[in-house]
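Sequence, please.
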């Protein structure tokens, strides 16, 4: 069945880096949209980065120049490289895609940035 599994979250000091991974199963991730969302306590879930099927990428203004989304088609995996992390990046990060007209989400991975 279709499944997304995130990993790579953790506790990091401000200015540090983390790389999140999202491993897909049950479909070919490289030909589907791949999105990273995040949700901080008390806030709405927001789109952080997107890898579109035409090869383009888009980013939220708050992460431009610091985050990078990429794909590994062989591993059926999408990554989110996060650099120069700030305390306001603290959130649960979710991987998302759509397949056969349905949205799929991973279970989320916690990222905590200390000041």
């Amino acid at each position: 069945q279709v499944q997304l599994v995130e990993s790579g979250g953790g506790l990091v000091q401000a200015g540090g880096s983390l790389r999140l991974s999202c491993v897909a199963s049950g479909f070919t991730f490289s030909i589907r949209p791949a999105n990273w969302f995040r949700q901080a306590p008390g806030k709405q879930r927001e789109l952080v980065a997107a890898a579109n099927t035409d090869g383009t990428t888009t980013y939220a203004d708050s992460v431009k120049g610091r985050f990078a989304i990429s794909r590994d088609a062989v591993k059926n995996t999408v990554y989110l490289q996060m650099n120069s992390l700030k305390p306001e990046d603290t959130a649960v990060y979710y991987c998302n895609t759509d397949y056969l007209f349905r949205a799929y989400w991973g279970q989320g991975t916690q990222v905590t940035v200390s000041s």
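The mean pLDDT is 97.
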